[in-house]
Amino acid sequence: MVVCGLACWRCRWLLPLLLGLAIIMGIIALAGRGWLESESEPYVQQASLWESCTRGDGDLNWRCESLMEYGWGRAAAATYLVGFVILVICFALAVIAFSIEILRFNFVRGIGGLLFVVAAFQIIGLVIYPVKFTEEISLTGDNMFSWAYGFGWASTVVVIGCAFFFCCLPNWEDEVLGNIKPTYYYSSPERAPYLN
């Protein structure tokens, strides 16, 4: 029977797997056109991290303008993209760290520190975007920040959780490496009559 606790060696791939999930959500956020959308019909507004698109009520074609023409658009895209690139680097480092037999725990703690930097960059991008978008771009109808923007926040939340685990993992070094002998509890028959 295999028992896997929070910090056991057999479960070492959970943290890189979570980082991979954060990367997938980051890709969806970077490529998705659902950062801002019209809340109800007629759907006349749609935006991604890179561009904002509008159309008339009866028009089928979207008219798009690049958000890279705005300083805040470049700043939001750059900070989120820098955070994403560092996240990919952290994923590669985590796979390397957990692949070797002798785990370097200071190395793991460094990955946790980098993940906090990733979270800071992504949060900056995710805060700049809605604040400046609603100030600078004229919105038509009722709009909401939608699914791709949500994937950006979900990726950031996973990164923050992984950062804490990577930073705290060295505190359980002996448990992870299996250096602790199991503790057996024995009670005499007089103290536990139900064992007879």
Automatic annotation (TrEMBL):
It is a multi-pass membrane protein. The gene is Perp_0. InterPro entries: P53_induced, PMP22/EMP/MP20/Claudin. The chain crosses the membrane at residues 12-32, 77-98, 110-131, 151-172. GO terms for biological process: apoptotic process; cell-cell adhesion. Belongs to the TMEM47 family. This is p53 apoptosis effector related to PMP-22. Signal peptide: none annotated. Coiled coil: none annotated. One of its GO terms (cellular component) is cytoplasm. Keywords: Apoptosis, Cell adhesion, Cell junction, Cell membrane, Cytoplasm, Membrane, Transmembrane, Transmembrane helix. It is found in: Cell junction, Desmosome; Cell membrane; Cytoplasm.
